[in-house]
Amino acid sequence: MKHLLPELPYALEALEPAMSRETLEFHYGKHLQTYIDNLNRLIQGTPFEDSSLEEIIMKADGGILNNAAQTWNHTFFFKGLTPSQPEIPQRLLKAIEKAFGSFEEFKTQFTQTAVSLFGSGWAWLVSDGDGRLSIASEPNAGNPMRKGLRPLLTVDVWEHAYYIDYRNRRADYLNAWWSLVDWNAVDGLLG
Ligand code: MN
Asked: In this structure, are 35 and 96 located in the same domain?
């Protein structure tokens, strides 16, 4: 199965000024494309040639795992953004308040996790088998599905995600990213 660059549900300039067209051109058009090209090359002639991304993430290791997880993570990240942010659905708000006490506390803890992640990686909001929400961080190409957790929301804190727009200011990038989160997409994943 040849993996393809996913279509974005918005134009490359639609997320400005929080996320520039130039960042999307590089992050989506070049970084994600490279992970997909690497994955397609690496799976040739292996048992993963016809596997879904999820199957590869659960079973592979090494370069195949890294490129499959980066393909999944970026697709999930980009599809979780919107230029016209909706109100947080009540069901999601209730679940967040139950887990973290308040929405503001969730935002504080999530931002702290993302800002303090050493090096490259991803911060996640996840749900466990009982529907309990928690915050997780994964280095590099990590994906919480490998630990049996369901991803609901993620933010990419690799430097390539923010260096064009925010240089070294990861906290400024995160502050802008919050304004792009598609809460309807997160709510739809609660199950
Ligand atoms: Mn990235």
From this structure: no
What's the pLDDT at 122?
Answer: 98
Number of domains making up the chain = 2
The pLDDT of residue 191: 80
**pTM attached to this predicted model:** 0.97
Strand order in the sheet with 121-127: 133-139, 121-127, 150-156
What does pLDDT average to over the chain?
A: 97
Using the mean position of ligand 1's atoms as its centre, give its distance from the Cα of residue 67 in Å.
11
Distance 90 CA to ligand 1 centre (A): 30
78 CA distance to ligand 1 middle (Å): 10
**Nearest residue to 124 (alpha-carbon basis) of 135, 139, 108:** 135
DSSP state of 84: S
Q: Residues 134, 99: contact at Cβ < 8 Å?
A: yes
**30 and 64 inside one domain:** yes
